[in-house]
Each structure stands twice: as C-alpha cells, then as structure tokens.
Amino acid sequence: QVQPVESGGGLVQPGGSLRLSCTVPGFTSNGCGMAWSRQAAGKQRDWVSSITTYGTTIYADSVKGRFTISAEKAKDTVYLQMNSLKPEDTAMYSCKTLGGGVCVGAWGRGTQVVVSS
C-alpha cells in the first residue's frame, strides 16, 4: 500500500477557508476513488466526503454546501476545499483510496485543521 500524503491544514478563523490536498501516486491509473475523514480529539473518526474514479462526489450532511472534493488526475491528487469553516470542523483530516484490489488503502497520518478566533 502506498501511504497517502495530506497537506494544507492550519489555523483559520471561523468563516474562513482552507484547501487540503491528498496525494497517492498511482491512484488515478489504478481507477481508485478517494475519501476524506476527520477525527477530533477524543472522538471517533467521521467520514467527510468521497469521490469516485468517475468523478461522482458525496458529502456528509455536516459539510454539505461548505466543502467541495475534487481530483486533479494528472497529479494523482485529491483536494478538499473547505469554506465557511466552523469551530466544530476542528480535527485531524485524513484521506485514503477507495475500491477493491490495489485500491484498498489505509488512512494517512493526516493534516491538522484548527478553526478558532
């Protein structure tokens, strides 16, 4: 398995925006989808959003209308554009590939997002 590499986290004020990136070499050519999840301190991991190899996207109700997932296939990278951030969005955000066979993946180490004034 290739370990995902996440980046783009940081400290942002409520109402602000961040764009997270997740790179997994080969995920595009292997026909994999990708998912983002988040885990706040002391809480369980929650699924946030997914994108299929065909570009179909789905979102958790808590982020629908604020977050956008997209893929840049030439770079084997998936992005999570996060707008109108709220303090409850504070968490470690991780990604992993989706699908069977070579697409079976583990969550990456993540990138920390803190929404605070």
Describe this structure in words.
The structure is a single chain. The protein contains no helices and 10 strands. By secondary structure, the protein is mainly beta. The strands form 2 sheets. A 6-stranded mixed beta sheet has the order 2-10-9-4-5-6, with no helix packed on it. A 4-stranded antiparallel beta sheet has the order 1-3-8-7, with no helix packed on it.
- What's the total number of strands? 10
Measured between the Cα atoms of the first and last residue, the distance is: 39 Å
The dominant shape is globular
The main sheet orders its strands as 2-10-9-4-5-6
How much helix, percentage-wise, in residues? Answer: under 10%
Query: What value does the average pLDDT take?
Result: 95
| Percent strand | over 45%
Sheet with the most strands, sense and barrel status = 6 strands, mixed
Class from helix and strand fractions: mainly beta
Oligomer: single chain
Number of helices: 0
Element order, helices and strands?
EEEEEEEEEE
Rg, please?
Answer: 13 Å
